[in-house]
Amino acid sequence: MTVRLVATDMDGTFLDGQGNFDRERFAWILDKLEERAIPFVIASGNGIGRLLQLFKGFEERLIFVADNGSHVYQAGKTIIRRSIQQEEIRAVLDYFKGRWAEVCLMLSTEKAIYMQVGAGVPFEGTGLPIDPAQMAAFQSRVKYLDDLSAYPTFGPIYRLGLWVPEAQVDKITEEFNQAFHGQLVAVTSGYGSVDILPQGIHKAWGLEQVLTNLAITPDQVLAFGDSDNDIELLSYVGVSYAMENATDKVKAVAKYMAPSHLEAGVFQVLEELVL
After folding, report:
1. Where does the record place a coiled coil (predicted)?
2. What is the distance between the alpha carbons of residues 269 and 73, in angstroms, rounded to a whole number?
3. CA end-to-end distance (rounded Å), the chain
4. Strands 71-74 and 113-116
5. Over its length of 275 residues, how does the chain's per-residue pLDDT go in tens digits?
């Protein structure tokens, strides 16, 4: 099967245990892929701000599918961005009413992340592998409100999420998904992070927008992932790799296994591809 595009998740997949990557090694792989006219797509639950910071110096050579597929960004501009609709936000606020602080409900605009007063500091003390400067930049965007339902005055909301103890993630996501019957979907990306996505919006949807413009079919894509928010992506493409550290659900849908992100498994597979 001919591979015409590569897509990869970030945390727990492409990034190492410190939330970084070997830039020299990646540059060599990217050169080889570009010689073969194979685009490289970053498919992540992260926002475009962190991704551009991570890939400074490479940003013009990559296509970004950010915010779990709802934001496609290339060549310095947004191609597609799907905001969360008012009725969807209201439904989530109503569902978690009285627990906004407890579940650290986050409503994210272009520049800020709004949370209820009393909520904790997102990802503090979790050991999330992220550069301290990037974590500081993320947390500097957090604004605590006396009443989170005041969100309509803030502008478009592009992301809904929770941060809860990892031991509670399965219970919270299962109960949420049963209550919303697929109209909204809760998925985890690890470290207690839960994203709430509109029906049909996921990494595969974002990648589909990219492939349509490039006249590439899903069976010509090689993709990597490790967490439950990668399931649609890996189910969509022709050549799918679960990382050795992936969840059981991810391993069940992937066709192949890659070494752990701690062993630079993505790089190992791609080096074999381009040699």
Report:
1. none
2. 25
3. 16
4. unpaired
5. 699 999 999 999 999 999 999 999 999 999 999 999 999 999 999 999 999 999 999 999 999 999 999 999 999 999 999 999 999 999 999 999 999 999 999 999 988 999 999 998 888 777 778 878 888 888 899 999 999 998 878 889 999 999 999 899 999 999 999 999 999 999 988 889 999 999 999 999 999 999 999 999 999 999 999 999 999 999 999 999 999 999 999 999 999 999 999 999 999 999 999 99
Distance in angstroms (rounded) separating the CA atoms of residues 103 and 39: 38
Distance CA 85, CA 73 (A): 21
Phi-psi region of 107 (alpha: psi -120 to 50; beta: other; left: phi over 0): beta
> Strand 239-243 relative to strand 221-225: parallel, antiparallel, unpaired?
parallel
Please report, as a single letter, which amino acid is at residue 142.
V
Given the DSSP bridges, would you call strands 239-243 and 40-43 parallel, antiparallel or unpaired?
Answer: unpaired
Tokens 């752990």 correspond to 260
Q: Note the helical H segments in 44-158.
A: 48-54, 86-95, 132-140
